[in-house]
Each structure stands twice: as C-alpha cells, then as structure tokens.
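Cross-posting from the chemistry board since nobody answered there.

I work mostly on the small-molecule side, so proteins are not my area. We synthesized zinc ion and want a rough idea of how it might sit in this target. Sequence and SMILES are below. Is it possible to get a predicted 3D structure of the two together?
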Amino acid sequence: MINVQKILKFINIIKKERIILWRKKVCVIVLSVICVTSLVLYGCGENTQQSSETESEEGLNIITTISIIADFVENIIGDRSSVTYLVPIGEEPEEYEPVPSDFRKIADADIVFANGVNLEEWLEKIMRNVGDTEVVYVTKGAPTLTLVDTDIEDPHLWLDVRYVIDYYVKNIVDTLITIDPEGESIYRQNSKAYTDELIALEEWIVKKLSEVPQENRIIIISENACKYLGDAYGFEAEGIWELNAHEEGTPQQISRIVDLVKERKIPAVFVETTVDERYMQMISNETGVAIAGTLYTDAVGVKGSGADTYIKMMRHNIKVIVSGLGE
Ligand SMILES: [Zn+2]
C-alpha cells in the first residue's frame, strides 16, 4: 500500500512552487498584451523597421514553436536562412506562456512552423493579436493516436521517425518551395540527404530495440509522450499523466503507476528533460525501481549535451530505453 499522505504533502510542495511560477507568467502575459497593442498602434519599439530590413537581406525569417521542428527546418534550409524557435529548451511546449518578444518575432516572421495537434494552444492566443503571419502545421495529413480514454489527439508524432520522414519533412519542404521558389533545388537536395539520414536512424532504432525482451516492452515516463514511438516499434507506452497541459501528478495517477510497475515487474522507469522529475522519483521510491535515465521528448538537448539535434536526441533516447529495459 502506498503512503498517500506522504505523496499529498509532496504534491502540495510542488504545486506551491508552480503557483509562484504561474504568477510570474501572468505578469509577463500582461506585458505581452500591452506590447502587442503598442505594436499595432505605434510599431512597438525602436527598431522594427531596421530589423525587418536586416532580415530581408539575410533570407527568410523563419520561426518554429519548438526546437525539434527548428532542427528539421535547419536541415532542409541549410544556410539559406536562419531559424528561431520560441519554447526554450527545458520548458514544456504544452504549458508555454509567450513572452513579449515572441509577439514581435511572429509579427516579423515570413512563416511560422508549428506542430499542431493540441501542442501549442498558446499560439492561437498570439495569432489573434499579431497581424497576418502564416502558420503552417507540419503534421498536416498525418494520422493521429489519441490520449488514453479520450478522443483528444496526442501531439507527440515526432517520436516516430516515420512520421518525420512522411509528414514533417515533406510539409516543410513544400512550404519552403512555395514561399521561396528560387531555393527549390537546394531544399530538395537537402531534404533528400536528411531523409537518408532519418531512414538510417530508423533502421538503427529497429535493430537496437529488438534487444529488449517482450515482457519488458513498456516505456513509463511522466507525460505519456511515447505512444507513437511505442506504436511504431512494439512497445506499450504509459505516463503518470497524459498531456502536460492536463492535470499532473494526482495521488491516483501516481498510485496507478506504482501498481503497474509492481504487477508487471517493470525493471525501469524514465523521466523527461522537460518535466519535473520529482513525481517519478516518488514512484521510484515506492517501488524500488530505478529511474534508468532521462529522455528527450518535447525538446532537443542544449549544445554540448550530445542530444542537440533530433537525430542525436533519438539515438540517446533509444540507448537509454535499451539500457533500462534490456537484459
Ligand atoms: Zn509533451
């Protein structure tokens, strides 16, 4: 039997911290709205004119919501243009609160690449306030999985490499060719080379994951982000909660995973770089099962982490999963 009292006390500490953080974010939102209003009325800021002139000399001004999509775009665009992402590495994209400079970046952008599928609800808030910058959802056309016991679509399609090849890369290339037809041959060449790397990555993943015995094929992390990965490679995916934007870490959610780990004799659980790992630590303490490592689910790693690109982060993830669940 797990100690509910202890868990509740722990959750309260985490919640209090989050309320303080939330208050700070509210201040930032108010500032953002003031800034956008000024942007519309007075051109917000000293050097709007100057910055858009500089950008047109340097090629397209591309914004993506998350670092993973920025990496896809960088691979396709090469040094023809620069790419910036909005959600800082380490933050949950589902819970991101835009800062004033995001409004400005989007207003100045030629195009915004977003994941869609319930990942960036906050983007709609920006778009309602910012001019007519076009947003392209790079998962367009992809079949989706739903969150457990709901018909809400799960946004983490990128964790299945086949989706990246078939939808992310394809949608990005099509869009770039439409807005910059002169770059077509470069975009096609780069995307062909990148797709070859992704195919090699996929083959490596299949081979590597085959080392995990059937009874251990269950990936347990805080946010249940590995459904597409699991579906692709024959693993069950479980999370304490379903989506970061939803309720996180209730005693019921925690005791459900504790029971699951014990019943199925799962040898390892995992945490993510973008989520508070104290929830999983509680499960580890209650079950005696180790946290076998940290997975990159919603962002690539920082420079020097060994996981600062999508391909490197996936290789890291698979190695960690195999080391925890393999024999
Ligand atoms: Zn997520």
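Reply from a structural biologist on the board:
Welcome over. Reading the output above for you: The radius of gyration is 21 Å. The chain has eleven helices and eight strands. Happy to explain the token format if needed.
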